[in-house]
What does this fold into?
Amino acid sequence: MGDEQAAALVGALIARGETVAAAESLTAGLVCATLVRVPGASAALRGGLVVYATELKTALAGVDPGLLAEHGAVHPEVAAQLAEGARDRCGATWGLGLTGVAGPSAQDGVEPGTVHVGLAGPGTRAPRFSGARVAEPPTRGEGSFVTVRTLALTGDRDLIRTESVLAAFALLGEHLA
It folds into this structure.
């Protein structure tokens, strides 16, 4: 699953002298586990945070507890803050943040297959959000950006988690191209 994409990302990151880290909720470490299957991944992967429990999103990744209280764990801004937290706490060039509902049941009124993938990185290359609306997003540090892609996936838990990883790889890959 995703081995070719993972190899391409690891190769691109190494060639650029850059690194990545991830804060993962619904994928529970699958992004990092897929990347480390690639020989030499240690030169590109800084680390990962498994933040499956809501309170760990704050404790480990620095997600605003007020945001979680107001909107719940499955929200575009949560993915953005997860990405920033992974990047910051692991000292990586790029941060990925994934949150969503793998199913089979809804979570806090959010349907299975709803996934938000955040990417934090250097530069100002991408719009803040794609596929989601958030009122007055917070200002990010100079020379960095955060973007979020919202997905509506179908399938069982394993397929939704797998497709979420592939979407994260695609989003990062677009910014490394």
